[in-house]
Each structure stands twice: as C-alpha cells, then as structure tokens.
Amino acid sequence: MPSKILIIGACGQIGSELTTKLREIHGTENVIASDINTRKLDLVNSGPFEIIDAKNFNAIKDCCKNHNIDTVYLMAALLSATGEKYPMEAWDLNMNSLFHVLNLAKGGNIKRVYWPSSIAVFGPTTPREDTPQHTICEPTTVYGITKQVGERWCEYYYKKYGVDVRSIRYPGIISHKAMPGGGTTDYAVEIYHEAIKKGTYECFLSEDTSLPMMFMDDAIKATIDLMEAPGENLTIRSSYNLSAISFTPKEIYESIKAQMPDFKISYKPDFRQAIADSWPSSIDDSVARQEWNWQHSFDLDAMTAEMLRALKKKYH
Ligand code: AKB
C-alpha cells in the first residue's frame, strides 16, 4: 500500500515545493495538499487539496480519516519577524497545530510526522560558530520559543507514546518558486528578485551579518531523506541541526554582482537585525551527516546561478 500523505501549510514557501516532490515520488493522488486558503492556484488545481486551518483539530482529524492518511508534514507556522508583531497568534498557531498532529499520531492512525524546527531555537548565549547539536538554547523570539518548546514536545511524544516524529532545524531557505513570508532570512530571497526586477536592493540586515542558509533543493532532499531513514538509525527526536552554506549580505551581493556587474545594494537594518544577531552564524550538522547521510549540493555561487537563471525566465 503506498503511503497516504497530508501536507498542512502546503501553499507556503517550503510546503509548496515539498508537495510537488512528494507527488512525484508517491503519486499525485496519494499526497493531499492543504492550507488555510487557496492562494496557490497551481497547487490547488494540480491534485487533491483541502482547506484546513491548522489550529482546527477536527478539520485535521476528519481529513486524515477521510483520506486514510498515515504520514503528516506540518509546515504551517508564523515565522520570526511576523511572530514579533503577533506574539500570541504565533504561539497559538505554532503550538496548537503541533499538539493536534502529535495527539492524532498518539491515537495510532498516523504512523509518521514531520515537523520543522529552526535555527531560531538558538539565542545570544548559544555558541555562534559551528553551533553544536546539543547546546544552550535560550531563544529571544516568540518564534524561537515555539520551536524550542515544540522540540521538547516532539521528543516527549516519541519517548512516552512512541510517536515517530522527525524534525530538522532549518536555516534560511532560498528558493525561486513561492516567496517566504515573515522571516528574518527572507532578504536572501528578496535580493535575487530585486536584482532582476530593479537592479538595486535595500537590505534590512547589515552587510556583515552572517547566517546559515540553504538552497531549497537541498532542504527538500534533506526533509525526504530524513523521513525515509530507518528509525533505528535516528538518535535525535527533538530536531536535527542541518547546515549547507553561511554567508553575509555582502557576500551574496558579491555573488550576484559577479553575474550582474551593475547590481547595487544599500543597507538599512531594521528590527530584524536584533533577531539575526541572536542566531548562530554557522551550524555543526555532523550528527545528521552521520546518522542519515545528509549532504548538501549547492554552494553560494551555484545557488546564485540557479536563482538568476530561474528568475530571469520568470520576469523577462
Ligand atoms: C526565519 O527567518 O524566521 C526562518 C527561519 C530561519 O526559521 N526562515
């Protein structure tokens, strides 16, 4: 019997590309996309789609029952910058959606759960360079607090109830299909769009702010590899550190400028600077590399080449 998969938050930046990939692997009819609205019409029209508010336990439960779902990817979340503007909404969505899915899985019908965590679990007291898997986590954002607490609950449900939940601490994810929304690392996507559309970009972080980042293809591969890994190989049931590249706004600008010599950048840090300053600049992901053979493919220049190629096609 093929796996029947539900993706909650399928219209978001990662959810939309994950849906496409999972449909390629498992067959379109076996992957139910869901979101609170139908904002991505290509996704809505290309396979099974349900409107689900991730805060609504019964909506998730009914969908799982109606479609015999055995695997759930919970991708809905309010990210770091939006979370600072709407703290209670971030807490409500990020925590309750997780409890709904973990509690359904505890009931036994859902066999496997994927839930993304983030580098936002770390804070100013965490070692900034090569941040270890096990280290101090004192996040200062609402988003980071929800992810840190969520990790504790994932591990708890695994140990106490045997829920097969798996998770990755995503760095900033860069892609050219769906836009990210409300994150601190979003500049690294916006910069490519503005380079193509206007030839200039005003960056909301300072030029030397180094953050861990990853190209979407690598993030999707990691997510699916982790979900397919034999459970007995996995020692981390909170969330795996994952890393690919780290760069500053100046470095990504230079990578773009090498291909677009007239491109200009200016810097106007806003409230997101303080969030970025509280996060690591690079991550030690050796545990993921050992336990499920994680390897990334894209470095900064390979990613720039792919982003510019795709966005030129989109805008010209
Ligand atoms: C954000 O910037 O909030 C996210 C993240 C690092 O989790 N992209």
In short:
It is globular, with a radius of gyration of 19 Å. The chain is an alpha/beta fold and 316 residues long. The site of 2-amino-3-ketobutyric acid has 11 residues, from loops.
Number of strands: 14
Shape: globular
- Helical content class: 40-55%
Strand content bin: 5-15%
Bound molecules: 2-amino-3-ketobutyric acid
The biggest sheet, with number of strands, parallel, antiparallel or mixed sense and barrel status, is: 6 strands, parallel
Description:
- The protein is an alpha/beta fold.
- The model has no long low-confidence stretch (mean pLDDT 97).
- Strand 1, helix 1 (13-26) and strand 2 (31-35) form a beta-alpha-beta unit.
- The protein has helices at 13-26, 41-45, 57-66, 80-85, 87-106, 142-161, 187-197, 216-228, 249-257, 272-277, 286-292, 300-315, and strands at 5-8, 31-35, 49-51, 71-74, 112-114, 117-118, 165-166, 168-170, 172-174, 200-203, 211-215, 240-241, 245-247, 264-267.
- The protein binds 2-amino-3-ketobutyric acid.
- 2-amino-3-ketobutyric acid (AKB) is lined by residues 79-80, 118-120, 143, 170, 172, 183-185.
